[in-house]
Design a protein that fits this description.
alpha+beta, 2 domains, 6-stranded antiparallel sheet, two-stranded antiparallel ribbon, 10 strands, 31% strand
Length: 180
C-alpha cells in the first residue's frame, strides 16, 4: 500500500498503532523510514475532538516548547489529514513490560518528562505504548497532551501501567485475549 503526503509517495510497511486520533504506519520514504499518521474520524466514547489535525499540530508545538523528547514533525498534508513524523526505532515501554523486562532504568526519564510537562501546564499520555526506548533514551512518540490535572499525571495514573499491575493485566486481557 502507498500513501501520498504533499505529492510524495510513501510505501507502507506495517501498521504501528491505532489510537484516538488516527492510524500510524511505518513507511519507507525518500530518505528512509518514517511514520505516516492518517487522522481518522471514528467516535471515541471517552474523548471529544474538534479539529484532530489542528490539535496534533498545536500539541506538537506545546511539547517542543516544553522540551519533551518527541519525534520531529517532517510534513503535514492538511487536505489528506496526514502527518509524517521521524521514526524512532526501538521497543515501546509497553512491549518491554509485557515481555517481562525491567523498565526501572527509564522511570527517572519519564519522571523528568512529567516534571517538564507539568512545568508547562501539561500532561502527556503516560500509557506505555506512547514511549519508545532508543539507545537508552526514552522518547514520547505521541503528540497528545492536555492541560495539567493531578489525576492524570504520571504518579497518579501513568505509573499504574509501567509494570505488571492489575491495571495492565486487565488491559492485556482485553486485547486479543491477552495475546498483545
Amino acid at each position: 500500500m502507498h500513501m501520498t503526503v504533499n505529492g510524495r509517495t510513501y510505501t507502507v510497511l506495517r501498521l504501528l498503532g491505532h489510537g484516538k486520533g488516527g492510524y500510524s504506519y511505518l513507511a519507507e520514504g525518500p530518505t528512509g523510514p518514517v511514520v505516516v499518521k492518517q487522522i481518522h474520524h471514528e467516535l471515541c466514547s471517552y474523548y471529544t475532538f474538534g479539529d484532530k489535525l489542528g490539535a496534533e499540530l498545536f500539541d506538537y508545538d506545546r511539547l517542543k516548547a516544553a522540551g519533551i523528547p518527541i519525534p520531529e514533525l517532517l510534513a503535514v498534508d492538511r487536505e489528506a489529514e496526514r502527518l509524517v513524523k521521524a521514526y524512532i526505532e526501538g521497543p515501546t515501554v509497553f512491549e518491554l513490560v509485557r515481555d517481562g523486562a525491567d523498565v526501572t532504568p527509564y522511570l527517572d526519564q519519564v519522571r523528568a518528562m512529567a516534571a517538564q510537562a507539568q512545568a508547562a501546564g501539561l500532561n502527556i499520555d503516560y500509557f506505555p505504548t506512547n514511549f519508545v526506548v532508543k539507545d537508552g533514551r526514552l522518547w514520547y512518540i505521541d503528540y497528545e497532551c492536555n492541560g495539567y490535572m493531578d489525576r492524570w499525571n504520571f504518579e497518579n495514573w501513568g505509573v499504574r501501567y509501567w509494570s505488571r499491575t492489575p491495571e495492565l493485566e486487565a488491559y492485556l486481557s482485553q486485547q486479543e485475549g491477552g495475546n498483545v
